[in-house]
Amino acid sequence: MEVYRNPIILSFIALYMLLCIGVGIWALRRTKSTHDFFMAGRDLGIMVTAFAVFSSTLSGFGFVGGPGLVYKLGMSSVWMFVCIIMGYNISFFLLAKRLRLLAELGESISLPDVVALRYGKESTRFLISVAIILGVLGYLATQILAMAVVLKDILVETEFLASISLEACVLVSCSILVFYSVTGGIVASVYSDLIQGGVMVIAATLVFLTVVYTFDNGFAEISRTIQEHDPQAIGPWGTLGMIGCLSWFFVFGLGGTGQPHVITKMMMYKKVSDAKYILPISGIGYLFSALLWVGIGLAMRALVLQGVQPELSSPDAAASQFLQNYAHPILAGVVFAGLFAAIMSTADAFLNIGTAAVMHDIPKALDKTIKNELFWARTTTVIITMVSALFALYSGDLVAILGAFGWGTFAAAIVPTVAIGFNWKRANWKAANTAMIVSIAINFIIKVFKFGLPYGIDVGAFSLFISLFVFIIVSYATPLEEIDPDVEAVMDL
User: Fold this and answer.
1) Of 157, 176, 347, 384, which sits with the fewest C-beta atoms within 10 Å of its C-beta?
2) Burial of residue 106 (number of CB atoms within 10 Å: 0-12, 13-18, 19+)
């Protein structure tokens, strides 16, 4: 069967691509309005919503960037995925009930709709829309780059495509993504999440077992090998150091409440009471899927240190190289197909919220009306994909670093405005606007001018801390504002 490894893997991926086309065509028939395109009709069941929540978080960030980050920094990366699980609990506690009720109260189809309802100001809608667009560019670039990196690693093993470039793989990836997203909108994303989420939970568990059996003494041998050659990597803080890890603890724990591709799903399920079932299913699904994140990263580092595996050209190649060289061909094919599914559905979610910001929220904030909104929403989806693809190719960052940048941009702008503002009546639009402007400025000044923070402190954590501080200070420094009675009633629940 080893002789047919690459054809088997390519067959699974090809079958998945055909499935994407099928899902897109099916979803096209269900998508008759912008409400369907952006909000899936607000009637999702428990399992669909739960799998959509954890799949949106993991995606290419976890399955490609995660192992690469573990390979490069050791146990530092554990502070990301463990804190994300903690972030689910914080998000559901602070937002699940309020977001769902406010979305129904205002017939909202996007997160900025709900924010405008809470604060009563179109300028707040405008600023959160800008923050979402900027964060989408970084996070969508993560998905596109992850898909292209994996596709390239697979295709170079074939004789007739051995010299294929990363740019060509980005073009292929974007073409499939555009078709999938333009036809189906969020409907295609959330329903495919149910299938691929289940596949990835099972596949990640099997990959983790493969990692264990690749070494004679399992994880004991992995730990011993890394300990002998790079003891800092296997320590609790990894090579990033304590301060850097704690900054990830902050931004990936609390920052989960500011991820629009995740919290928007809390506006889509049928009944408010469903949240108590959705949370544990999402957390358990994410926990099992993240086994691949840690397992492959440590295994590839140990294999390189033992001299069994050549040094990787890029940390992002860790997952694809392990699956191609050490996993059973059928398992590798299933995981690669599931990986593409995870990336595709999450990328679709980002395109969806980005397009909603451009075509629905910003025009509404400026009191403009877009005719034939559904057509222009699909056109905008194509444009955002192209811009993100260029960002992915020429930013020079690893998948995980791009993902962390997108996560931090979202967290710093949205956590104060949404997670705090929806629970604290003292908060007002002046505080929300100021915090968003400050956070966007900090994130992009540091990114563009490549300023480094001491002790490995994450940029997103730093900007989140500043924006929270500004939000609280401005809220206390400005007069208490009257809240819409219906909104206040929801906040009192």
Assistant:
1) 157
2) middle
Length of the chain: 493
Rounded CA gap, 430 and 451, in Å?
Answer: 29
Q: Which of 95, 480, 84, 467 is nearest to 283 (CA)?
A: 84
- pLDDT over 90 at 423, yes or no: yes
Q: What is the pLDDT of residues 321-379, one digit of tens each?
A: 898 888 888 888 888 887 777 777 677 777 888 888 888 889 889 888 777 766 777 78
**In which band, very low, low, confident or very high, does the pLDDT at 38 lie, cut at 50, 70 and 90?**
low
Tokens matching residue 215 = 């070494």
Q: Collect all residues with Cβ–Cβ distance below 8 Å to 473 and sequence separation of at least 6.
A: none
First CA to last CA across the chain, in angstroms?
59
Distance CA 131, CA 88 (A): 22
CA distance linking residue 141 with residue 406, whole number of Å: 9
Which candidate, 355, 403, 137, 398, places its Cα nearest to that of 255?
403
d(CA 114, CA 92): 16
Predicted TM-score (pTM) of this structure: 0.83
Phi, psi (rounded to 5 degrees) for 125:
-60, -45
Transcribe 244-256 into DSSP letters.
Answer: HHHHHHHHHHGGG
Query: CA neighbours within 13 Å on the CB side: how many for 200?
Result: 37
Q: How far apart are CA 418 and CA 93, in angstroms?
A: 13
Question: Are the C-beta atoms of residues 479 and 430 closer than 8 Å to each other?
Answer: no
Compute the distance between CA of residue 355 and CA of residue 271 in angstroms, rounded to an integer: 26
The Cα 82–Cα 62 span in angstroms is: 12
pLDDT digits (tens, 9 = 90+) for 178-232: 776 666 555 556 666 677 677 778 888 888 899 988 898 888 999 999 999 888 8
- Cβ atoms of 297 and 77 within 8 Å: the answer is yes
Closest by alpha carbon to 123, among 367, 286, 392?
367
